[in-house]
Amino acid sequence: MSGFCPELSDDVAEVRDWVHAFARDVIRPAGAEWDEREETPWPVIQEAAKIGLYSLDFFATQWFEESGLAVPVAFEEIFWGDAGIGLSIVGTGLAAAAVSSSGTPEQLGEWLPQMFGTPDDVKLGAFCASEPDAGSDVGAIRTRAVPDGSDWILDGVKSWATNGGIADVHVVVASVDPSLGTRGQATFVVPPGTPGLSMGQKFRKHGIRASHTAEVILDGVRVPDSCLLGGREKLDARLARVRNGERAGEQAAMRTFETTRPSVAAMAVGIARAAFEYARDYAREREQFGRKIGENQAIAFLLAEMATRVDMARLLTWRAAWMARNGRPFTQAEGSMSKLVAGECAVWVTEQAIQILGGAGYTREHPVERFHRDAKIYTIFEGTSEIQRLIIGRAVTGLPVR
After folding, report:
1. From 299's CA, which of 163, 167, 268, 399 has a CA 20 to 30 Å away?
2. Is the dihedral of CA 79, 311, 315, 382 positive or negative?
3. Contact between residue 21 and residue 81 where contact means Cβ atoms under 8 Å apart
4. Of residues 106, 365, 382, 386, which has the active-site annotation?
5. What is the pLDDT of residue 338?
6. Is residue 382 flagged as an active site residue?
7. Is the four-CA dihedral 302, 380, 206, 253 of positive or negative sign?
8. Whether pLDDT at 399 is above 80
């Protein structure tokens, strides 16, 4: 593709090395402990905040880096350290992306700083789109937003929300006109301490256990017009176009997911790389039948395939991130391609890492079993592999594939 070059600038390489050092020295040593505890790793988040890694300034600077590669490069390093802790550090970014993609300049200035706080007073953000009965079908969202004068009343239940219920700022997708499906939805910010918002069930998960995932209950939550991302005038104009049979633009939740797919893919690449490197190093040292197991073709060929798939996933991820940053449309669903390939790569590579370690890989004495548990979510959340194939299939055929 003209213009795309998978070579990092000096600035991006410097950020990569800086983040890698933090992941190596702080995140990775804490991974097993917080996985066992299944709790938000507040001390690690605070350490990240102290060095400027968990901060609005860091996320904004990397997001607007001209090549588009800074975010995926940084995320790969963070998740190479540990996926559960990594998601606790970057989870606020999804809520921030929702505000950035739909909000006014005034709303960005108001809410983004409140999502991160300061090193001495760390804050979190949560993006709340999924629901218990909706899953990948964002058109089935039942949470309602009803106007009441210059306010809105939100009622419903959100599920699978990262930082849900413990975040300071919640960003909620709700239906303002159910008859219009996804085109009748809008996104709202629920400020800290708003009455009626509470945490429901906290989920105990197979992997990424250090990342808090829970239901969010919205019971008569009242927010002012200023919390409607984009403003009421823009919403009314969009709804009027839809009712007149005109195009309304991209749906808010889907726009957020498409924007962040390369970033999510980079997380999966980090997990896959961690598993490959651990299995490779093990194969270099472990002896069986008088020689290193890596000398056996069965192991060496498997490692070759693992390395190839990690590089393939990374290149697709970098391409999509570069396209997004440089305004190139995803005509072939390149964002979904990166998420699909990276997610399935992470699952396959981590499973092979366990196989190379044998029985030892199945125990918690080695991290590959945790890598495998963490990887599986990347074929499920922010669009399952099946949804990614559906999006890609529609793009490449031009047909309404169902």
Report:
1. 268
2. negative
3. no
4. 382
5. 97
6. yes
7. positive
8. yes
Residue found by looking up tokens 């849900």 in the block? 164
For each of the domains in the chain, give its residue range(s) and CATH number, in order of start.
Answer: 10-122 (1.10.540.10), 125-244 (2.40.110.10), 252-397 (1.20.140.10)
**C-beta separation of 364 from 315 below 8 A:** no
**Residue that has been written with the tokens 């829970």 in this structure:** 214
Pairwise CA distance, residues 140 & 229, whole Å? 21
What gap in Å lies between CA 61 and CA 395, rounded to an integer? 32
Condensed to tens digits (0 to 9), the pLDDT of residues 129-157 reads 999 887 666 667 899 999 999 999 999 99
Which tokens in the block code for residue 110? Answer: 């108001």
3-class DSSP string for the chain:
CCCCCCCCCHHHHHHHHHHHHHHHHHHHHHHHHHHHHCCCCHHHHHHHHHCCCCCHHHHHHHHCCCCCCHHHHHHHHHHHHCHHHHHHHHCHHHHHHHHHHHCCHHHHHHHHHHHHEECCEECCEEEECCCCCCCCCHHHCCCEEEEECCEEEEEEEEEEEECCCCCCEEEEEEECCHHHHHHHEEEEEECCCCCCEEEEEECCCCCCCCCCEEEEEEEEEEEEHHHECCCHHHHHHHHHHHHCCCCCCCCHHHHHHHHHHHHHHHHHHHHHHHHHHHHHHHHHHCEECCEEHHHCHHHHHHHHHHHHHHHHHHHHHHHHHHHHHCCCCCCCCHHHHHHHHHHHHHHHHHHHHHHHHHHHHHCCCCCHHHHHHHHHHHHCCCCCHHHHHHHHHHHHHCCCCC
Query: How sure is the predictor about 246, in pLDDT bands with cuts at 50, 70 and 90?
Result: confident
At a CB cut-off of 8 Å and minimum separation 6, what does 175 contact?
Answer: 141, 142, 143, 144, 145, 184, 185
